Amino acid sequence: MSREVYMSKQKQQDGKSNIKRMQDIVRNTEENLHEAEISIEFTAPLQKVEVEQKNERRKHSIEALKEEIKEEILERKKD
Predict the structure, then answer these.
(1) Which of 12, 43, 55, 74 has the smallest set of CB atoms within 10 Å of its CB?
(2) Burial annotation 2-33 (CB, 10 A radius, 16+ → b, else e)
(3) Quick one: CA torsion of 73, 18, 24, 39, rounded to 10 degrees?
(4) CA angle, corner 17, sides to 11 and 18, nearest 5?
């Protein structure tokens, strides 16, 4: 196997593991968001604001990661 073929296969494997890793992060962040939304009913007003702000950041992170996953998939299809 030539070095170029080996490097191409290695890049594909890295891409697959990157996608898997990002999918895991999205799933965990979505779970945290859901749990925080449930617990918000039982929190003090000041903490409620903090949780809501954190959830907004979580939503932005989820969207950014999903876009990154799409880009990674498209990049892999090019190779």
Answers:
(1) 74
(2) eeeeeeeeeeeeeeeeebeebeeebeebeeeb
(3) -100
(4) 85
Between CA 53 and CA 46 the distance in angstroms is 11
Q: In the 8-state DSSP scheme, what is residue 40? A: G
- Contact indicator for 60, 20 with CB cutoff of 8 Å: no
pLDDT per residue, tens digit, the chain (79 aa), is: 554 544 455 555 565 789 999 999 999 999 999 999 999 999 999 999 999 999 999 999 999 999 999 999 998 888 6
Distances (CA, A) of 78 to 17, 18, 26, 42: 17, 16, 24, 49
